[in-house]
Amino acid sequence: MTIKEVCEKYDITADTLRYYERVGVIPEVTRTPGGIRDYQETDIAWVENAICFRDAGMPVEMLIEYVKLYQEGDSTIDARTNLLKEAREAILEARKKYDIALEKLDYKIGRYEIAQKTGVLTWTCDEDDKKKG
Amino acid sequence: MTIKEVCEKYDITADTLRYYERVGVIPEVTRTPGGIRDYQETDIAWVENAICFRDAGMPVEMLIEYVKLYQEGDSTIDARTNLLKEAREAILEARKKYDIALEKLDYKIGRYEIAQKTGVLTWTCDEDDKKKG
DNA sequence: TCTTGACTTGGAGTTAACTCCAAGTTGTAG
DNA sequence: CTACAACTTGGAGTTAACTCCAAGTCAAGA
Known about the structure:
2 copies of one chain form a homodimer.
Chain A: H1 3-10, H2 14-23, H3 41-55, H4 60-72, H5 77-118, H6 125-132
Helix pairs in contact in A: 4-5
Chain A binds a DNA duplex through helix 2.
């Protein structure tokens, strides 16, 4: 699979893919004899992981560390487990914050929609932002 | 409430609070006659909102836009509602990605824990990353 | 009143994560 | 064999969101 195909498949730029490889977010990608990237199943799995975890806010540094440990072999299994657990906690924490924001948004949207429907503001925005967020 | 107290209450730096005010993420804060920030209930509500929405990944630009619309008065209620709905969609989208990452993490952690308990790798990490992510 | 520490401003600097660029190489279609 | 698009590299540039700094002002205690 060419870099272009991978880009299209995952809606990501070639620059980002090359950057991920360069800094070690993914291991070195398989090449053709001419030196052109030819993504194999394994390479693609790493790309998929990288995108998935980046999408969840996991820092590039952490992914680099994971790949480094992975390449050091079985002796790093404990370290890798810990790293993954740490990432899990961070993601759970972040998700909690998303839920709180959603609640707040829903409350505000609800208020605004009533105002729109009735054409009347039964409350001042000031009051709303002051008392209920 | 002084800037320091607000910092401590929300675990945020004074620089960030001043930055938020400067760029318009929150409206101008009440001052003492001497020009020193003296956060009132309303000011604090804005700070709380800003932190909450930033924590959910809402871009600073969007918060600035909301405050701008808010200050223009009731004629911008439709625009504000749309903005909030847009933010809501973005947060829902992001949260979905967090859930996917969590699933992947849980799967990997489960595998690693079995390896740790039994002291045996019944699978190669390569295989794991290749086939199951 | 003096000191001392927290506050003020505008502007410059930093960080993470890309994103772009120039100059050169590869590979496919005609 | 020749174009020509797509690929390669190292390195520089950009963006969002802070974060820090210098020079000066304010306010509470001795």
